[in-house]
Fold these 3 entries.
Entry 1:
Amino acid sequence: MAQKRMGRQTVKLQNPPSVAAGACVVGGKEGEGPLRHWFDYISPDSYFGQKSWEKAESAMLNHCFSLCCDKAKLSPSDIDYLFAGDLLNQCTGSTFAARDLPVPYYGVYGACSTMAECLSLAAMALDGGYGDSACAMTSSHFCSAERQFRLPLEYGGQRPPTSQWTVTGAGAMILTAEGPGPYITHITTGEILDAGVTDANNMGAAMAPAAYKTLKAHFADTGRTPEDYDAIITGDLGYLGHEILTELFQKDGVALGICSTDCGMLIYDRAAQDVHAGGSGCGCSASVLCGHILQRMTRGNWPRVLFAATGALLSPTSLQQGESIPGICHAVVLDLKKE
Amino acid sequence: MAQKRMGRQTVKLQNPPSVAAGACVVGGKEGEGPLRHWFDYISPDSYFGQKSWEKAESAMLNHCFSLCCDKAKLSPSDIDYLFAGDLLNQCTGSTFAARDLPVPYYGVYGACSTMAECLSLAAMALDGGYGDSACAMTSSHFCSAERQFRLPLEYGGQRPPTSQWTVTGAGAMILTAEGPGPYITHITTGEILDAGVTDANNMGAAMAPAAYKTLKAHFADTGRTPEDYDAIITGDLGYLGHEILTELFQKDGVALGICSTDCGMLIYDRAAQDVHAGGSGCGCSASVLCGHILQRMTRGNWPRVLFAATGALLSPTSLQQGESIPGICHAVVLDLKKE
C-alpha cells in the first residue's frame, strides 16, 4: 500500500510544500468587482497590448508568471516545473506564454478545475523529491472563451439566467519544498462524473455532482468534517451550482455551513455587475485563490482552507453531437500548519 | 536540493515503477502496416461502432483501457490514477472515455508528446508513494484530427510531401509500484522551444529542435551517451524531423546511431502506404510504445530504451493569427533492470 494514501482518492503529503508566492492578473470587469484590492494587476485593456484576445491571454499569463517569480524571489530558471493549462483549443494560452521560459513544462487540461489539478501535481512533484520549486498556473479570458465556445462577441447573444460569466484573469502559485507555509497538506483527486446535464448554459448544475463526489470522498478519506475548515471554497460552481452542492450535502445530513463559498460567487458583485449565476473559467478560481484566499490565509483569517476547483469537460463539438457534460473536481488543502 | 534530481531537467526514480501491461488499439490503415502483429486490436471500422469519429476516439480509448486492465490483471477500481489526454479540442476523446471509470483522473495536454508526459507523471506518482498503480493513456484519430485541424475529409485536400499522417490509434500503459519490470528509471522533462517554423504541414521541422534540446539535456544530466541505449525512439518526428534531429546531433559530433528511430517512421510502410513524411498524432507513439517497443523489450531485443515523444503545441487559431509552432519533447527511460 502506497504510504501516503488515505482511502481511495486522497493523499497526505509527507513533506508538505510551502506556498512561496501567488500572483493574479485580471481584466477591467474583475477589477471593478469586490475583490479588486486583492489582485496584483488589473488591465483596463482587454487586449493586454496584443492584437488578438488569444495573444492577450498568453500575455496575461506571462505577466502573471513574472509577478509570481518576483514575489517568490526566484528567477524563472530557478523553477523546476511549470504545470499550466487553459481553456483555449490545444491550451495555446499557456503554451505560448511558456514558449520563451526556461522551465520544464507539463501541460494540463482540467477545464475550470485546472488550478487545483496543477497545484496537486506541483505539490506531489515537490513532496516526491523531484524538485525544489514548482509553479501552478492557469487563465481564462472572457473574449477568447466566448468566441471559441459560444458566439462571436459582435453577435451580442442573450444569456440565460443560469449562465456564468467567464473571468478574464490568470493566477500563478509557486510552491517550494521548504518554507514557512501556508502548506499544501492533502490532495483529493477527482473522478469524472457525468450527471446527464446537457445545458451548456448551466455549468453549475453539470459540475455540482462532481464537486459533491470529491468533497464527500475527501471527508471520508481524511475523517474530517466541514467544521475542520475555516473556509471550503469551490470554484466555479456559481450561485446555482453552489446551491445544488449544498443541497446534496444536506440530504446526507451534512451542513457545509457558512464557511462554504465559491470563487464564482466571490469575484463579481451580483447586483451591480450583471453576471447572472456568477463567474467561471479557469482564471476565476485561480485569480481568487492566488489573491483573496491566499492573503486571507496569511493574515490569519482562514488558517485552513479546502480549495476544490471544478471543471466541465465538454467541447462545442461534444455538445453539437448531443453529449451530456461530464464534470470533475479536484480538492487541495492549504494549511498554515504542516500537520 | 531535491534528492532525485540529476541536473536541470532529469530525475532518477528511487523506486522505479514497473510496467504491468501495455495495450494498443488501432484503425485499419495502421493494421495493414509493418507493426500489425504487435497491436492488440485492429478495427476495420473507422467509426468503432459509433456515430461520429469523435465518439469513435473515445470508444477506442475505452476499449484500450479495458484491454490494458485485463492484461495487467487489475480491475479499473484497482487503478489509483489515470493520466490521459488527446488532440481533440478540450481533450474530449479522453474525458468521454473516462467518464464512466471509477478512477481518479488527471487530464494532460502535450499534443503528440502526451504519452511521454502521462507516463512521466504516472511514474512520479507511484515512485512518490501516492499510489500502487497508475495508467498512462492517449489517442489520436485521423478523421477527427483532420477535420478539426485541417479540412473536412470530403474536401480531399492535397497534402505536401512534408506532411505526416495522423495515426488512428490508442495506447495505454499500466504501471505498478512493485513488479518484475520493465521499469521506468529516468524522466527528462521538456521545455517549450519555438524554433520559428510556421508551416503546419511540416511538424517534424517544428518539433526536431525540441527533441534535440531534451535529448541533449538527458545525456548531459545523466552522463549517458546514445550508446548506452539499445533503442532511442522519438515520436513523432517522421522522416524529415528525424533527419533534422540526427543532423543537429551530428553538428555536436554526436552520432545517434542505427539504434535511433522514430515511431512515425515505424508505423507505416513508406513505399506502400502513401503517408509522405510518416505517422503522427498522440496515438502514434502511444500505440508503437505499448505494442512494438514494449514487446521488443520484454523479449530481450531492447533491454534499455529511451522513449522521447514530441509535441507541436499549435492550434488552428494560433496558425491563423500568424504564430510560429512551439515544440516540446519529454523523454522516459524504460529499462529491464532497475539500475
Entry 2:
Amino acid sequence: MRGMIVGRFQPFHKGHLSAVKYMLSEVDDLIVIIAASQQSHQKDNPFTAGERYDMIRHSLVDELKDITRVIIVPANDVKDNGLWVAHITRLVPKFDVVYTNNPLTEYLFKQAGKEVINTPFYERKEYSANHIRELMISGKKNWRQLIPKAVAKIIDEIDGVTRIQTVSSSDKS
Amino acid sequence: MRGMIVGRFQPFHKGHLSAVKYMLSEVDDLIVIIAASQQSHQKDNPFTAGERYDMIRHSLVDELKDITRVIIVPANDVKDNGLWVAHITRLVPKFDVVYTNNPLTEYLFKQAGKEVINTPFYERKEYSANHIRELMISGKKNWRQLIPKAVAKIIDEIDGVTRIQTVSSSDKS
Amino acid sequence: MRGMIVGRFQPFHKGHLSAVKYMLSEVDDLIVIIAASQQSHQKDNPFTAGERYDMIRHSLVDELKDITRVIIVPANDVKDNGLWVAHITRLVPKFDVVYTNNPLTEYLFKQAGKEVINTPFYERKEYSANHIRELMISGKKNWRQLIPKAVAKIIDEIDGVTRIQTVSSSDKS
Amino acid sequence: MRGMIVGRFQPFHKGHLSAVKYMLSEVDDLIVIIAASQQSHQKDNPFTAGERYDMIRHSLVDELKDITRVIIVPANDVKDNGLWVAHITRLVPKFDVVYTNNPLTEYLFKQAGKEVINTPFYERKEYSANHIRELMISGKKNWRQLIPKAVAKIIDEIDGVTRIQTVSSSDKS
Amino acid sequence: MRGMIVGRFQPFHKGHLSAVKYMLSEVDDLIVIIAASQQSHQKDNPFTAGERYDMIRHSLVDELKDITRVIIVPANDVKDNGLWVAHITRLVPKFDVVYTNNPLTEYLFKQAGKEVINTPFYERKEYSANHIRELMISGKKNWRQLIPKAVAKIIDEIDGVTRIQTVSSSDKS
Amino acid sequence: MRGMIVGRFQPFHKGHLSAVKYMLSEVDDLIVIIAASQQSHQKDNPFTAGERYDMIRHSLVDELKDITRVIIVPANDVKDNGLWVAHITRLVPKFDVVYTNNPLTEYLFKQAGKEVINTPFYERKEYSANHIRELMISGKKNWRQLIPKAVAKIIDEIDGVTRIQTVSSSDKS
C-alpha cells in the first residue's frame, strides 16, 4: 500500500519527521509532496524546493539509512482548487491513501474517491513551521531544537536566518 | 559529488538504465530530472510524470535494491530557454556536474558555470525512446526487449500501447 | 439591443434574479458573464463555474420557461485590468450596453467607448452573496429564503453547505 | 439526460448543425463546448469565441426558435492533456454522455468514467471546417452552401473572408 | 560602467528624479526598470507601463534634453523570487551595478554576484509614491508639488485622479 | 507625431537601420518594439531581449549620437491575437501611426482605429534576419556586411555564432 502526504515543509521539522516515520510503519511506500515548489525567498516560503528536498532527504537518511521507500516529489501550486487533485494525481506515482489534517485537502481527495486518514499524533503548536520561522526572524536561537540536525545544517550552509530576516523586512517596508 | 541528468524518459529504456548505473559509479548521488513533467497523453509524450517516476524507480530498485543515492525530480518545462537553468537550479538539490549530450543543455549549464560531461556510452540508435514509441504505435512487439522489465510491466498495467496508439491517431486526424 | 451583466454569482440570489428580469425587460438579449470561472472551493468562491451556470440557468427556466434570450458565458479572470475589456470583448457575442454598479467596471467599459447603465434597483444589503455565504458558514438556515429555489436545490445536491464550511475552516487554519 | 459535444467550430457548419439536432433528439439538454476559446485571428482559428457563440446561437434559433435546451460554453485550452477532463468538468454543468469521434477525447473521458458515444452520421469530407476555411482563403464562393445562413451572415458582417485571407498570408510570410 | 535601478514608479516623483540624476553622475549609462509592467488600474498600480514610461521619459528630457544615456525597460513581474534575477538579466542590456534600498533586491543580486549600492539620498517619507497616491485619492491638491511637472501634465491628460479614485473605491466596495 | 515599429530583430540588421532612420525623418518620436522578448537561445530567436536592446541602441547611437527620440520597448508575446493590440497599447507610450508590412499587424491595428503605413523601402531578400541567421549557422562570414558594426561587435562579444550553431544543432537532434 502506498501513502501520500502533502506539505510545504518551510522548513521540515521534527513534527514532520515523526509523522513520516509513523506513516512508513503503516504503508509500503510513502510519497512526500513538497507543495508550492515554485515559491521561495518569501516570508512564508523562504526555502527553495531544492533546499526543502535536501532537508527531507538528509533528515530521513540520518534516521533510516535506506530511504528507498520514500518518494519525494516537488509540486508547483495550481491556483485553481478544482484542478488540484488532477494536477497531483498525474504528477506522482499511484497512491492508495492520503494522510492529511487539512479539511480542504481531505474534502477534495474524498470527492475524488481516495481514502483519507487524519494524522492526530504530532503536537501542532510546538512543531509548527510558522512558529519556527517566527523564531528565526526574531533572532532567537531555540528554533534549532525543533528541527532535525540535518535541516539545521542546511539552513546554516545557506545562511537561511539572514535570508528569512531579509525577506521578511522587505515584505514589511 | 553530485551529478545530474535530464531526460523526458518517454519511456525509460535500457540505454537510460545503463547510463544511470554508469553515473552512479562516478558520483555520490545522482539527480534524475523528469523533464516536461506537465506533458502526457501526446504522441511524443504519452506517459505522465507519475508513471515515468515509477518506471525509473522500479527499474532502479530491481537493479540496486537501495536507491537512496538516486534523487528523482519531475520538472515542468519553461518555454523560455533564458530561464531554464535558473528554473532547474532552484527546483533540485545542489549538484556539481551535469551529464548531457544535448548541445543546448551543455551550452546553458556551461554559461552558468557548471561542469558538463558528455555521456558517449549508450547506443543512441537502438535505445531511443522515439524508436520505442514508433514500435508501440505500429503494433510491433519488440519494444519490450529495449526497456527494463519493470517499465514493460507498468506500460501493460496502464495499457500504454492502446494509449499511445489512440493519442497518435488523434494527432493525425 | 443587447445588454451585458458581469458577476461571480457565488451564489446566484434573488437580487441577481430580479436584476436579470429587469434587464430582460429593457434589452433584446442579455449576456450574463460568470466571472472568475476558474475559481472554486474557496471561501469567497465556493462553487464551480459549471455549478453557477446551472444555478442561473435553472432559476431563469423556472421563471421564464424559454431562456433563448439569455446568453450565459463563463469567463476566467485576467489579472491585468488593462486587458480585461479586450478579454471579455472577444469572449462574448457583441453587446451594446453594460449594466454595472462597480466603478472600475464602469470606468473601463466607458474608456472603451461602451454605454454603461447603473442598476440601482436591488437592495444590496439583504441580497448580498457575501452575506449568504456567511449565513451558510455559520450554520444558519435563512440563506435559503434569499436565493431562488432552483439554487437551493443545487446547493443541496452538491452538499454546498459542507463544502463552504470545509473550505472556510481550511482558510483559517 | 444531458449530452455534451466539443468542437472549435471554426466555423460552425451544416455538419455541426445536423449533429446538434440529432443529439437534441436523444438527450434532454445538450452542452456545446466552444474549444480553444482564447484563439482567434489565426489561419486555423480565424473567429473569436464570441463570434463562434453567435454563429451557433443564431443557427439554432433559426432552426428551433427556443434554444433553452442548448447550453453553450466557451472553454479555453489547457496544454496539459492530463488536466483536460478536470478542466472541462468544473467549467460546464453536469453531463451524462459525451458525443465524440476523436479517439483522444473518447479515451480521456472513458478513463474518467464517462459514457462516450460516437457520432457516425455526418459526412466528414464535405462538411469539414478545414475545407471551408481553405475555400474562403482561395477566394472561392461555394463555402456559403456548406454553412447555415446565419453563419454566412455573421462572416459577412465581420468581413471574415478578408480576415482569414489576411491571417493566412501573414502566417506564410 | 552601467548602473541599474528598479521601481514601479506609480507615479515617478521628484525623489525618483533626483536619484536618477545622482546615478547618472556616477555611471555611464543607467537602466531604469519599470517593474510590474503588466499591472495597471489598481489602487497601488494605477498607471500603465506606457504611461509610466512617458512620465520618466518626459521628466528626464525636461531636465537633460539628451537622454541617450538612460535605458528605460518595462519588466513584467514573475511571482517566483527564485527566478527574478534571471528574468531581469536576460530582459535588459548588461549592467555592472545595482542601486537599491530594498533588502530582498539587494540579497538576490548579491547572491548572483552583482555589486549593489544603497541609495541613501532622497527622503523616503515625503517623496513616497504611496503618499502621493493617498493624496490623490483623498482629493487633496498638494501631490502636484511632489512630482515633476511633466508627470503632472500626463496625469492631467489621462485624468489620473479620477482613475485612481475610481479604482480605489472599487477595491473597497 | 509618434510612430511605432514592431520587430523581433534577431538580429537588428542594416535594413532595420535604414527603416528606422527613414521613419525618424517622418515622425517626432519612434517607438521600437522588441517583440517576443521572452524568447532566446532558439534557432529562430537566438538573442535575448537585452542583447537585442543593445544592438538597436548602439547602432542608433553610432548613427545619430543623440537617440532621445527613439523609444525602445521589449514586449513579450501573447499567444492570443485577439489581445495583442491591447497588450501593446498599455505597454508602450501613446502612438499615432504604425509602420508595418505584416498583413496581420496591419489588420489588427486598423481594426483598433490606428493609422497604418506600409514601409516599402528596404529590400526584404538581402536584409532578412532569417537569411543572416542561416549564414551564421552554416559558418559563412558574409553575415557581417549585412548588419551594423555595433551589432557585429555584440555578436562577437557573446560569441553569438557558437550560440546559434549550438541551438540549431540541438533543435535538429
Entry 3:
Amino acid sequence: MKTEIISIGDEILIGQTVNTNATWMGQELAKIGIKNNRTTTISDSESEILEALKLGESRSDLILITGGLGPTKDDITKKVLCDYFNTELELNQEVLTDIQAYFKLRNKPFLESNNLQAMLPKACTVLRNHVGTASGMWFERNGKVFVSMPGVPYEMKHLMETGVFPKVKEQFGINELAHRTVLTHGLGESFLAEIIEDWENRVRAEGLDMAYLPSPGLVKLRITNTEGNQQIVDKYCEELYPLIPEYIFGEGIITMQETLANLLKERNATISLAESCTGGFASHLLTAIPGSSSFYEGSIICYSYDIKEKELNVPKDLLLKKGAVSEEVVEILSEEIRKKYNTNYSIAISGIAGPTGGTDDKPVGTVWISARSKNKVVSKKFSFGNNRERNISQSALASFNLLRKLILEE
Amino acid sequence: MKTEIISIGDEILIGQTVNTNATWMGQELAKIGIKNNRTTTISDSESEILEALKLGESRSDLILITGGLGPTKDDITKKVLCDYFNTELELNQEVLTDIQAYFKLRNKPFLESNNLQAMLPKACTVLRNHVGTASGMWFERNGKVFVSMPGVPYEMKHLMETGVFPKVKEQFGINELAHRTVLTHGLGESFLAEIIEDWENRVRAEGLDMAYLPSPGLVKLRITNTEGNQQIVDKYCEELYPLIPEYIFGEGIITMQETLANLLKERNATISLAESCTGGFASHLLTAIPGSSSFYEGSIICYSYDIKEKELNVPKDLLLKKGAVSEEVVEILSEEIRKKYNTNYSIAISGIAGPTGGTDDKPVGTVWISARSKNKVVSKKFSFGNNRERNISQSALASFNLLRKLILEE
C-alpha cells in the first residue's frame, strides 16, 4: 500500500510555517504500519493542486491532503477537489449545526462566510470536525482514497484520530502491529545503543523492527512485530528492563510529567516548585495535565536574586558567595517552597540557560536541581549544553525524573 | 523563475526528523525574492530520486536537493546524480585535503570510508564544505540548475550561504521581492477578512499577493509584490493600519511576547505575574526570551485557593462568593503581585482551562485577565473554547496584548 501526503500552503513553502503536520502524520502512520512514501508541499494554486492530485492518484493508494480549507479567498482546496472529482458543493445541515454551536459556545457572532464552511462536495464522505469549522472530506475513486483536512495542526490531528485512522484501517485491512515503546531518560542515543548492543542484535535477528526515537531529554525505544506477534515483543521487552533499569521511566505514550503526576495522585500527595532558570516551564508541563489541581498547589518563579532572598529566604551572602546556581541554594529553595506552600514534595531548579551568563566555572547549561520530600532530599548537578530552549526543557524533565526516583525509593 | 526543493530521507517521511531544512531554505529564498514553488520529500531510493529529478527538470529552473550524501550504504544520492547526468566519480584532491584536515582538527581517526567523500562527479562544480565532509554539487543542463547538498542542517546552511546563493543570484539575475507581514491578535481569520474585505479586493486588483497565515491566537497578513515594488506594498500596508488599529501588534517575525518584552526594555520597566489557569505558561513564554532577566522579576503560580489567599491576600469570602475566576479576584492578584515583587507592571490570569470545572455561568474557556501599572488597571473577560491547551496558550497571549495596550496608552 502506497501512501503520500500533500501539504498545501504558501506559508510552508516560504518557511513561515514548519511542516510539523507531515512529521506527525508520518509518525502516526508508521505506528499502524503504514509507511509514508512521499510528502509534497505546494502552493494554494489550482493548477498545482490539480497536478498533485493527478500524480498522487497515479502512484499512491492513500493520499492525505492538508491545508487550504479556511473560509477566506486564498483557500481554494475545496473548489479544486470538486473539479477533480466532478462534483459540486451542497449545504450539509449537520455540519452547519455543528458550526453554529461552535460559534455559540465561544460567544462569537456567526458571519455569513462561516456558512461556506458547511458547503461540502456531494461526492465525499464528510468527517466531522468538533474542534474547528473545516470538515474533513473523504473521497474514493477506483479503490484509491483521498482525504482532505484543514492545516491547523490540532484540527488535523483531531480528524486523523477520530475519522481517518479508523476508516483507513477498515478500508485497507490494516493488520494490528504488535509493538511496545519503552521510554528512557538520561542517556543519549549512542550511549544507550552501546549498552544494549547485544540485545538489539538479537531483536533484529528475530526479525523484529527496532527504532530509537530521540526527543530532547528522552529516547524512546520502539519494538515492533509487523505480523502481530505480541508474545515475542513482550519477551524482548522483558529482557530489556534489567539492562537499563535506571533509565526506563515508563512505556507507551505517557510523558515524564504524567508519570510523576500519577505517582503523586496514587499517594494523594501534592507538589510545589521553585523555578529559576526554567522560568515556569516545569510548572507549565505539570499544569498542562488535565486535573492537575489534585496534586499541584503552586510555584514561585524566583528569577531575580531579590525574590530568592525575600520570598524564599536564601541568605544574600550565600547567593553572593556560592551563586544562585549551587547545591546550597537549590536545597534552600526546595525546602522553603515545600514549607511555604505546605506540600508533600517539592522541586527547585536553578541554572544558566544561556546564551549569556556562563563562566569558566559554571558554563552555560550548568543546572542544579533539588527534589525533596518531608524526610529526604536529593540534589544533582547537570550539564546540558548551550541551547537555551533545550536547557529549559531538559532541566524540567530531569527535575521530574529526580523526584520520581526519590518517591519510588521512599 | 521556478524553484523547488527535493528533500531525501526516510527519517523525514516517517516523522523522526522535522524538515526544518526546507523551512529555512524557503525563508532564505524568499528574502532574495525567489519563491519556493514546491518541496518534495522522498525516500533514499534510486527510482524515487530519478523520478524526482526528472519531474524537477521538467518544471523548475532551480532544483535544490538535500540529503543522502553521507558515507554509509543507504546514502545513494551521489551515485544517482552520476547516472542522471551521465557522468562518473573522480577523486577531487582539494576536497580530500579538506577532509583530512577536518578530521585532524577534530582529533578523529580518518576511516577509509571518508575517502569516498572526496570522490565527486566530473560533470559538477564542487561547492566546498568547510564544516563537514560532504561537498555541495552544482550541475547545469539547458539553463537549469541542480544543487545537491548534505542534509545536516548546519552543513546545508553553510553551503547555501557560501556557495549556492552567490551563484544563484549571478546566474538568474535576481530581483528582490517586496513584502511586509502585519501581525494581528484578537480576531479570527474570517472576522478579520470581513472587516478588511474592500481593502483586500483592492490589494488583489492591484496584482499584489495577499495571504492570511493563522496560528493559535494570531493571524499574520502577508502582502507581497513579486516585482519588487516596495512602495505599492507600503501604500497598502499604511491603508491597513487605520482599518484594524486595535488588532495589529507588530510586523515581521516578532512574537507577541517579544513585542511586550521590547516595550518593557525600552522603558527599563519590570514585570511580575500571578498565574492561575495558565500554570506558568505565560511566565515561560517571557523567560524563553534570551536576556529576560532584564525585565522579568518573577511570578507566583497561585493554582490553589490557599495560595491565592495566603500569598496574595485574596479574601476567602470573596473567593467563595465571586469564585477565583472573577474580575474582583484578578484585580487583587495583579495588585498584590505587583507590590509584593516590586515591579512596574503586572499581569494576573485566572480561568477555567478545562476539560472539567465549567459551570453554566462560567463555562470551560472563561478566563479573567488583569493587566496593571502603578496607576492603571485594565481587566477583561475572555471566552476561548473547550480545548485546555489552547485556553492556556490563548490566555497567555491575550494577557500580553492587554498589558501591551495599557503600556501604549499610558
